[in-house]
Amino acid sequence: MEYGRVYFEDVQVGDALPPLTKGPLQQIQLTRYAGASLDFNPIHQDEEFARAAGMGGVFAHGMLSMGWVGQALTDWAGAGSVRKLGVRFAALVRLKDTVTCTGRVISKSEKDDVRLVDVEVWAENQKGDKVVTGKATLVLPSRA
Amino acid sequence: MPIAVNKAIGGKEYPPFPVTVERGRIKDFARAVGDLNPFYMDDAVGAASPWGDVIAPPTFGISFRDEAADSSALLRDLGVDISRLLHGEQEFEIHRQLVPGETYLCRTRVVDVYEKTGRSGPMAFVVRETAVTDRAGEIVVSMRQVTVVRL
């Protein structure tokens, strides 16, 4: 596993982020995420509860998918590079799903010696359905 | 017959609460996401980094809760059951990295409550913003969360 670090000068608008694939999703990961995030909503843990709620069964915390999107960004640009990350949870992630996170550079800007790159980000399941869509702003170092 | 949410909580501010970031919690969070980046996991790498310590993953702020408060305060204020909630949107603005040992103050406000009928029926949207500040009162992280209530 490499932990990337890209330079502002080497990034072009239209560049694709290396995809990050997670899953197949197992219940234990949702239990672990509940403990780490302190989100103990039983809808992510208890099959009967989730069915009774009309959700057709357990599904993942949206925040877990967002965490994966964050990882796709930092695997590429380095830890600590995310200035802004905003997403919409477009569809549910279910047990056994495989989720692939990626993105594309949409703009570059420089202001007061801070170099920013805007990235469109998304995550999709094994069927190609988008489960997360959003946008991120990254701070990148300069070669200069 | 759809249920109703209490729209009067629009504008409500919850009492500020402190959170002290613990090293082990950062690592547990990173492990739970499956993101074993050494800048989160390895104290030696953190010590040699520009931040002088490990840092938290970008979405770590979601774990900030008021330990002294009733965790179902929002549900009670809205008048709905937890089984009706979905996470609609989430945004983080990270002005500075969250690091272990620091105590931050979190202030959450309900900025909007509105209803809309979508493909899956009538829904209410509850928009909350949380400002995370340091001891000097400077903003460290801003969070914006949209919770969807299935009516």
Which ranges of chain A are low-confidence, i.e. pLDDT below 50, for 5 or more consecutive residues?
none
Question: Based on CA inertia axes, which overall geometry of chain A fits?
Answer: elongated
Q: CATH homologous superfamily of chain B?
A: Hotdog Thioesterase
Strands of the largest sheet of chain B, in order across it? 1-3-4-5-2
CATH architecture of the largest domain in chain A: Roll
The name of the CATH superfamily of the largest domain in chain A reads Hotdog Thioesterase
H/E series of chain A, N to C?
EHHHEEEE
Give the beta-strand count of chain A.
5
The end-to-end distance of chain A, rounded to whole angstroms, is 27 Å
Index terms:
heterodimer, A: 144 residues, alpha+beta, Thiol Ester Dehydrase, Chain A, five-stranded antiparallel sheet, 3 helices, B: 151 residues, 5 strands, 17% helix, 36% strand, elongated
What does this structure look like?
The complex is a heterodimer of chains A (144) and B (151). With 144 residues, chain A is an alpha+beta fold. Chain A has three helices and five strands; from the N terminus they run βαααββββ. Chain A has two domains: 106 residues, Roll (Thiol Ester Dehydrase, Chain A), CATH 3.10.129.10; 34 residues, no CATH class. Chain A has a five-stranded antiparallel sheet, covered by helices on one side. The two termini of chain A are 27 Å apart. The relative contact order of chain A is 0.25. By secondary structure, chain B is α+β, with helices and mostly antiparallel strands. Chain B has a five-stranded antiparallel sheet with strand order 1-3-4-5-2, with no helix packed on it. Chain B is elongated and about 60 Å long. Chain B starts with 16 loop residues before the first strand and ends with a strand. The chains are: A alpha+beta (144), B alpha+beta (151). β2 of chain A pairs antiparallel with β2 of chain B.
